[in-house]
Amino acid sequence: MKAILKNYRQSPRKVRVVADTIRGKDVSVAELNLSFLPKRASDPILGLLRSAVANALANNQANPEGLFVKDIRVEKGLVLKRFMPAARGSAHPVKKRASHVIIELGQKETNTKIKGKKKTKK
Questions:
Q1: Which of 19, 52, 70, 77 could form a Cys-Cys staple with 3, CB 3.0–4.6 A?
Q2: Cα(3)–Cα(1) distance, rounded to whole angstroms?
């Protein structure tokens, strides 16, 4: 029950801030947090979360109420190396970073224990 977003063109450092806000939360709470978060990375991660939920429902027949964000990782992707003109004909390097985001969902265990009679003290 996972989904992967490859080569998202934003630096991993900025994407990790958004990823840390939903780690370990229920899917419904995570979607709500991402929809109101004023960061650029929140929309692609929200789409990735919805994709992971769709994968869980289609492939594993999971219960959508019991899903939570088990793990979310942001790893380094491609680095495009460019140059910015500087004084006296020189150039300074510019690194345009990308990220790989991997989200993994888990299913909460439901406690369906049968309640028995309580023991009475004699």
A1: 52
A2: 7
